Amino acid sequence: MAHSLPLLPDVLRPTLDHHLAQWRAAADAAGLASELPSLSDEFQQQLPQVLAGSDYVAEQLRRDPALAWRLLEDGLLLRSLHGGEMRSMLQHELQDVADEDVLAQRLRRFRQLHQVRIIWRDLTRVAVLAETTRDLSDMADVCIDEAYRWLYAQTCVALGEPCSSNGEPQHMVVLGMGKLGAFELNLSSDIDLIFAYPEPGETQGGRRSLSNQEFFIRLGQKLIKALDAPTVDGFVFRVDMRLRPYGDSGALVFSFDALEQYYQSQGRDWERYAMIKARVVAGDQAAGADLLAMLKPFVYRRYLDFAAIDALRSLKQMIQREVQRKGLQDNVKLGSGGIREVEFIGQAFQLIHGGRDRALQQRPILAVLQTLAANNYLPASAVEELSAAYCFLRDTEHALQAVDDRQTQMLPTDALGQARIAFMLGFADWASFRERLDQERNTVARHFAGVIADPDEDEAEPLAPHADWLPLWEGTLDEEQALEQLTEAGFDDAVAALRKLNSLLASGRVKSMQRLGRERLDVFMPRLLGMAAEQENPDLALERVLPLIEAVARRSAYLVLLTENPSALRELLVLCSASPWIAEQITRYPVVLDELLNAGRLYRPPEPDELADELRQQLLRIPEDDLEQQMETLRYFKRAHILRVAASEIAGTLPLMKVSDYLTWIAEAILQQVLKLAWREMVSRHGQPARADGSRCDMDFIVVGYGKVGGIELGHGSDLDLVFVHDGDPQSETDGAKPIEGSKFFTRLGQRIIHMLNTQTVSGALYEVDMRLRPSGDSGLLVSSLTSFARYQREEAWTWEHQALVRARPLVGCPRLSERFAALRAEVLGRTRDELSLARGVASMRQKMRDNLGTSATAAGTNDDAFTAARLFDLKQDAGGIVDIEFMVQYAVLAWSCRYPELLRYTDNIRILDELHNAGLIAGEDVHRLQEAYKAYRAAAHRLALQKQPGKVSGDQFHDFRHGVIKLWQQMLPPPEPGPSV
């Protein structure tokens, strides 16, 4: 609405004068004429604009002149109602109701009072759209619920009380659908209701026993009559029961089990669409919440529901056909660009994505639109346009209905009606209003056309390019023709490609597909073949994607996803062609196909704070006790983000160091939430553990990362080297209902964390966890106190364990304990050591590793004959490789950090080498050589991992790097002495 009203048009002056004269005459007849001057100035100022707009308000004031004074009592026209106030007002009106006729009269007069109040506040701009729709919905809620409660009590007196099989009294549940369910009721809306009751049983205490269903049918009939039947006072709300199972031919009331069985076995897609907005508006709220929880799996599929697209497209086409009917174009709800199309846009995304994204499981359309923008389903600009258009259209709808309290969304065709609507909406004339209305509707229609558009709609050619492949897939071509088509399309080995296609057709999964799934496969495969032919290597693209197609054959919604989103199919082919590792990951976990829908997001992994916040937000949407869904969410988060990192690495938009950073940040975000979930579960079961001083621990626990995760160098498929440390009192008991000793608490906490990380679900495991670096290895305690960890490191740890400590850092957990761990690490690593003895110990350990893990030709390390193409180079273990660089860095930290504590600042090799250069301990050119070699080796290892190949390259690769590393090794670390080393 505009912010101020224009001057009253001349055409409306007679209407206003007529209404004012009638009201004053009625007031005079009622003996109230002398009281008119007592009405407030604000009322007197607002009265003309309300009467000029609304014949309904004028008629109510004429019939009951005292209504004006009642409305001004307690400032009802000038303020918003607070929560529960409308219910209190109706309860006051109904407190002495004696029979159903009086109930009907009181309800109708209550509705008249508040209808006038709501229209008045809407037309005078005192109330915004959200308040108007909320007040109307609240009025419906309290009228339905208070009428139900009165009628329930009376019906129990007459027929007995309905009870469950174990004798518990039962109430009905009244579901409000549509705009009522979403708190979006309009001024003259019907209310769509569904009646239900918890379980079969019989009435008790009546003259004869009735089934619960019969009792609630009679009660439902009385409730409908109390609200819907026209009397001299009008009606309360028109009630529509056609959304119940089987519509008008179905029973008026169903048990919960009957409803669940109906929706599971016979529920149609339009019923899912309608059920999105279902809300308990009256009756037993607690039982109603249970009912909605039972029905939620019907409404929201567990994962992405692209199978709903066909139904939504049919509904969209029905809307478009209906719009074309004569006369509907001037309907602001049903016409092109109308209210219904905005609602369709929001609810389409809810049906498709709402099963996995719980933020979309809400009712009000404006809130849904904001979520679509916040979660990147729609551009923010589109949501802003749709929201503004929706508000304007709803304001227009209210203006149309305020005139005569009539359920209409049709624009007026007469000059008086047009002038009235323009005036109420703040426009100088009809032309300026209509220009704005057309602008908003064109905006909505444009966005509506883009929702679930048919991927073939925009094809300029008579046949889409993929249509050429249909005969080959359907088998109507003979083998020679099929091979010719494949060859002409660019397949190098047409025979192998055809064999793979025939193998897919003959596979058990395809043969056992149901009719609908097979139809989807037949629609999809020509698209796949056409797009595969566009790839640089069609043979490779087809070879790597077909296993995915076979894997999802029985979950054909994924085929719909790729059919409906050609850009996603193209991204899939590009990524699978580039990396068999990615192809395998998507085949194993096809749920991540959703990530291909947004190429901009796919190739832009988020920053660490964004990662942590995204995961936190996703888990907040899941009930705390739903551990299964929490674990699935963690796994999807990891799969999705690792796919994004790999895609960015392949595209060249993410350099090696950033790849490792992101993979490490993903692990940290997951560990943070796993620790939080495990801690919450343990504390809820056993209470909080104690510290040595008797105070209670607030998660005095840290997860320490070693190796690649500690050094911020995770790769694809890396496991996590972890150590758990706590700072509680091992002997003191927890303070919960089932107390246990602190040592047991922290051990079970560690076990819980490992279980959450290691457990195989349908989405795989999160991470493989290696705990062998803890004190005493596999024979040591799973979780160490900081005191015992410190004692071990100071008194018992071997040199290789101190080497490992160089790359150790707290990942998640208690900040205070993390600081103490860091101080202990600095103390242990910074002690003075005999450099020669240390060098020999490090060299001895390295030689053992080469002997056991390196390639046989280069185990000795320095022979130039090994640097030939015929002999492989193990990037990690062979002489001059990754581990040599790591060992040199670790030796340098252990030998020199006693004098140069800045060497302890970082845990990753690249930055430690920078510090060695800054301290003047290694020459700049040598540091540069080591860093470049290290990055080159790791980049090659990453590329090989994405190709599912071992970390070995031709022996003549990296010749200069290897020579340089070996030369520096020989300078820093002399050959080990014969015999055992410590």
User: How far is the N terminus from the C terminus?
Assistant: 83 Å
State the CATH architecture of the largest domain.
Answer: 2-Layer Sandwich
Assign the CATH topology of the largest domain.
Beta Polymerase, domain 2
Low-confidence regions: 458-463, 857-861
- The CATH superfamily name of the largest domain is Beta Polymerase, domain 2
Number of β-strand runs? 14
Structure description:
The chain is mostly helical and 982 residues long. The chain folds into 5 domains: 80-299, Beta Polymerase, domain 2 (2-Layer Sandwich), CATH 3.30.460.10; 308-450, Four Helix Bundle (Hemerythrin (Met), subunit A) (Up-down Bundle), CATH 1.20.120; 465-590, Four Helix Bundle (Hemerythrin (Met), subunit A); 674-829, Beta Polymerase, domain 2 (2-Layer Sandwich), CATH 3.30.460; 835-972, Four Helix Bundle (Hemerythrin (Met), subunit A) (Up-down Bundle), CATH 1.20.120.330. It contains 41 helices and 14 strands. Strands 2, 3, 5, 6 and 7 form a 5-stranded mixed β-sheet that branches. Strand 9 (720-726), helix 33 and strand 10 form a beta-alpha-beta unit. The longest helix has 31 residues, at 129-159. The termini are far apart. InterPro entries: GlnE (IPR023057), GlnE_rpt_dom (IPR005190), NT_sf (IPR043519), PII_UdlTrfase/GS_AdlTrfase (IPR013546). Keywords: ATP-binding, Ligase, Magnesium, Multifunctional enzyme, Nucleotide-binding, Nucleotidyltransferase, Transferase. Residues 45-292, 571-822 form the Glutamate-ammonia ligase adenylyltransferase repeated domain.
